[in-house]
Design goal:
Distance between the termini: 56 Å
Order of helices and strands: HHHHHHHHHHEEHHHHHHHHHHHH
Helix content: over 70%
Radius of gyration: 22 Å
Structural class: mainly alpha
CATH class of one domain: Mainly Alpha
C-alpha cells in the first residue's frame, strides 16, 4: 500500500503547505463577517468553529467520497492520483476561495457571485443549473436511503414520505435547530468509520495496485481469472469508459465537486471570523479527501486483491462464481455495486458495529446532503427575488416550488426502472459543470484583485476540458471514439485560455 501511505501524507502536507499559500493569496482579515452584521436567527446564526466544520464536512460529503471513490478504483490506481492532486490543488482551493468570496459578499449564493464576476447572462444560466442540481440532489438522495431502510422495516413508499417530511422541516427551520444539532453526530460517525477501516487496512497491509502500474494491470486481471473468464470486468469497463474524462466525473467529491460551492455560503453566514476559513473550507475538503482515499483503497483491496473472497460468506462467493460463466453473467464490478461494497466490508471487518456505521454512512449522509441542497435552493431563490426569510410563511412560499419539483422528479425516478442510474449520470455531469463556473468566477476575481490567479486558472482549464469532452465521448452522451478526447481536450483548453487572456487584456486596457 505504498501509494496509499504516500497519498495520505501528501494530503496532510497539502493542508499545511498549499493551504497556507492559498490562504495568503486570499488574505483573510479581522473585518466583521456577515453573521456579525446580518444576524437573523434563521440563516445568519453564529456557530462555534467545530460545529461549522462538522456541518460543512457532512454537507459536502454525503455518499460522494464513498460511492465515487469505490467506482473510481474501477479505473485503476489513477484514481488515487486524481483524489490527492485534485483535492489539494483543485477541490480544497475551490471550496476555500468560494466560501471566502461568499463571506466577502454578505454570504452571497453561488449564482450571485457568478453574476457579479462573469456577467448577467452567465448568472441566469448558472441559476437554472444550480436549482436543477439542487432538485436532483434532493431527489437522488431520497431514493437510495429509502431502499436500504425498507430492507429493515416498512415499505419504500413509507420511507420516501418520512424522509421528504424531514426535508421540509429541515429546510424551513433555523439552521441551528436541526442541522446544527444532529449533523455533528453523523459527521463523527462518518469519520470514525473511515478511521476504523484505515486501521484494518494498515493491519492487513495487502498488496495492491500502485500508481506506477497505471496502464499495466495485466497481473491483477489475471489474478481474478476464474476458469478462463475475466471475473474482474475492468478491461471491458475501460473500453466503454475512458479514464479521461470519465474518471474526473466519477470521482467528484473527494477531488473537486461543484456542489460544494453551493453549500459553502450556508456556513459563510455562520462564521464569526474570516480566519476560520482555512480550517472550515479547506480543512473539510481535505478531510473528505481522506475519506475518499480510504474507500478507494478498500475498493482496490475488494476488487483487485481478492478481498471479496475474504469478506463474503462462502455461499455468496459460490453464488457469484455460479452465475459468472452464463450468458447473463456479471463480473465483480457489475455484481457488487458501491452500496453493496460498503455494507459487505463494514460488516465483514467491523462486525455489528460496522453494520450500524454502514447504515449511517449510506443512509444518513445522503439524507443530510439532500436537505441542505433544498435549503440552498430556498436561499438562492429568496436572494434572487428579494424575499425576506425571517418569517416561516415567506420561507414556505419560496420553498414550495422546489419541494414540488423534487417530489415530481422523485416519483418519476421511482416509476422508471432505470431512473436512478439516469438521474445519477446527469447529476454527475451537472455537478462538475458547476465546478467549472465556480473555478472561472474565482479566477476572474483573483485577476481583478491582482492576485496570483494561476492557482485557479489551471484547474479551470482542466475541468472545462473534462466536462466538454465528457459530452462527446461518454457512453451516456454522444459516445464518440476515445481518440476524439485527445483532440478535443487540448483544443478546448487553448480556446478557454485564449478567452481568459483576451478578457484580461481588454480589462487592463479599459482601466488604463
Amino acid at each position: 500500500m505504498i501509494s496509499f501511505l504516500v497519498s495520505f501524507v501528501a494530503l496532510v502536507m497539502g493542508y499545511f503547505i498549499y493551504g497556507s499559500i492559498v490562504e495568503r493569496v486570499f488574505g483573510p482579515d479581522d473585518r466583521d463577517t456577515p453573521v456579525k452584521r446580518l444576524a437573523d436567527g434563521v440563516d445568519y446564526v453564529e456557530l462555534p468553529m467545530w460545529k461549522i466544520f462538522m456541518i460543512q464536512f457532512l454537507n459536502i460529503a454525503g455518499t460522494g467520497p464513498i460511492f465515487g471513490a469505490i467506482m473510481g478504483m474501477w479505473f485503476g490506481p489513477a484514481a488515487l492520483l486524481w483524489i490527492v492532486l485534485g483535492c489539494i490543488f483543485a477541490g480544497a482551493t475551490h471550496d476555500y476561495l468560494s466560501g471566502m468570496l461568499s463571506m466577502r459578499h454578505d454570504g452571497g449564493s453561488l449564482p450571485f457571485l457568478v453574476g457579479k464576476y462573469l456577467g448577467g447572462i452567465t448568472q441566469r444560466v448558472m441559476l437554472v443549473l444550480v436549482i436543477a442540481l439542487m432538485v436532483m440532489v434532493g431527489a437522488v438522495f431520497v431514493y437510495s436511503p429509502a431502499i436500504i431502510l425498507s430492507g429493515f422495516s416498512g415499505t419504500m413508499t413509507m420511507w420516501i414520505i418520512v424522509i421528504f417530511i424531514y426535508y421540509i422541516i429541515a429546510t424551513l427551520l433555523p439552521i441551528d435547530k436541526i442541522i446544527g444539532k444532529i449533523y455533528p453526530l453523523f459527521a463523527v460517525s462518518l469519520i470514525f468509520m473511515a478511521i476504523a477501516l484505515m486501521v484494518v487496512l494498515v493491519v492487513k497491509m495487502p498488496s495492491l495496485p500502485e500508481v506506477w502500474e497505471i496502464g499495466n494491470m495485466e497481473r491483477w486481471q489475471t489474478a481474478q481469472m476464474v476458469d478462463g473468464t475475466d471475473a474482474l470486468g475492468v478491461v471491458a469497463f475501460l473500453q466503454k469508459n475512458p479514464i479521461f474524462p470519465c474518471l474526473f466525473i466519477t470521482v467528484a467529491c473527494g477531488a473537486i465537486s461543484g456542489f460544494h460551492a453551493t453549500q459553502s455560503p450556508l456556513m459563510a453566514r455562520c462564521m464569526a471570523s474570516e480566519r476560520l476559513g482555512r480550517k472550515v473550507f479547506y480543512g473539510s475538503m481535505i478531510t473528505e479527501g481522506f475519506v475518499a482515499l480510504i474507500w478507494a483503497t478498500v475498493s482496490s483491496y475488494f476488487f483487485y486483491a481478492g478481498g471479496w473472497r475474504e469478506v463474503l460468506p462462502a455461499e455468496q462467493v459460490d453464488a457469484f462464481l455460479a452465475q459468472l460463466p452464463g450468458p447473463e453473467g456479471k463480473t465483480l464490478i457489475q455484481y457488487f455495486g458501491a452500496p453493496a461494497v460498503v455494507k459487505i466490508v463494514c460488516t465483514g471487518w467491523l462486525g455489528l458495529f460496522g453494520g450500524v456505521l454502514a447504515v449511517l454512512g449510506v443512509v444518513a449522509a445522503p439524507i443530510t446532503s439532500g436537505d441542505t441542497a433544498l435549503r440552498c435552493a430556498r436561499l438562492i431563490l429568496a436572494e434572487k427575488f428579494h424575499v425576506d426569510q425571517r418569517k416561516v410563511p415567506y420561507r414556505l412560499l419560496v420553498s414550495l416550488p422546489v419541494f414540488l419539483c423534487a417530489f415530481g422528479l422523485l416519483m418519476w425516478q421511482v416509476g422508471n426502472p432505470d431512473g436512478f442510474n439516469v438521474l445519477w449520470q446527469y447529476f454527475g455531469w451537472a455537478n462538475q459543470t458547476l465546478s467549472v463556473f465556480t473555478l472561472w468566477t474565482i479566477t476572474v476575481y483573483l485577476a481583478i484583485k491582482g492576485k496570483p490567479y494561476w492557482i485557479m486558472l489551471l484547474p479551470s482549464l482542466l475541468m472545462t476540458a473534462v466536462c466538454i469532452t465528457f459530452i462527446l465521448v461518454s457512453p451516456q452522451c454522444l459516445a464518440l471514439p476515445e481518440s476524439v478526447a485527445w483532440v478535443t481536450a487540448p483544443v478546448v483548453t487553448i480556446v478557454a485560455a485564449v478567452w481568459f487572456f483576451m478578457w484580461k487584456s481588454r480589462r487592463k486596457a479599459t482601466e488604463e
